[in-house]
Design a protein that fits this description.
With about 230 residues, the protein is an alpha/beta fold. The protein contains five helices and nine strands. α4 links the parallel β8 and β9. The protein starts with a strand and ends with a helix.
Amino acid sequence: MSRSFTVLPSGQLLPFRLNYETLRVLSQFVTAATDARQFPVPVAPEVAFLGRSNVGKSSVINSLLGSKVARTSSTPGRTRSINFYSVRWPGRPRPEVMFTDLPGYGYAKLSREISAEWPSFIEPYLKERSNLALCVVLVDSNIPPQKSDEQLCEALHSYGRPFVAVATKSDRVSGNQLRQSLQTLAQALGTERILTYSARSGHGREELWQQIRAATDALAGVAKAELP
Ligand SMILES: Nc1nc2c(ncn2[C@@H]2O[C@H](COP(=O)(O)OP(=O)(O)OP(=O)(O)O)[C@@H](O)[C@H]2O)c(=O)[nH]1
Ligand SMILES: [Mg+2]
């Protein structure tokens, strides 16, 4: 049994104990940015998906959205721009959330290019984007902690950005091995809790959606409170 949301006529979302697979959101590609000047005007709280090349960022986005809106590939380095996707609930005119799929880092062949790109648009996005509500840091549940992941988490801390760590491809690791791996990863990333996710089976979808909703609702609440 898992949870879903019901949209009230007022537009308020209520969590219900329903089959989570029935949650339907409408998603759309908005734009791809390779420069800070190309970022779209903020319209809704944003959730950024970050992690090494090939960790499964685009796959997790597709799994959460129940669509194939983000391109995935077995070749590392598929996503080279910040890709913005709007997420709308049925019956609502405007996007509630935006998902952003970021270029992966840490893959040897690409690392030089990526480190050149980082200051030009990735860092400004993570540091300055006013509507960035949550960063989802993805690590592979089958790969030991990497320096680059630790550096990312340190950078997010220094920018004051909240993040949630997610171990991907959990279908590839079983039982004890997964528990051990989660403990090591959480410790290296300096976080108490790490979620697991399998884009293949949908495992972890409900829990990650809950984290996303909590963060985006909190930011939307702040924005409303600041209105004159
Ligand atoms: N078994 C399994 N494979 C997965 C899962 N998620 C992603 N993959 C595979 O991992 C590969 C990379 O997935 P992507 O979603 O393209 O990874 P990415 O992080 O977006 O990669 P870049 O855009 O290159 O940085 C693909 O071959 C996916 O099919 C999962 O949960 N389980
Ligand atoms: Mg990708």
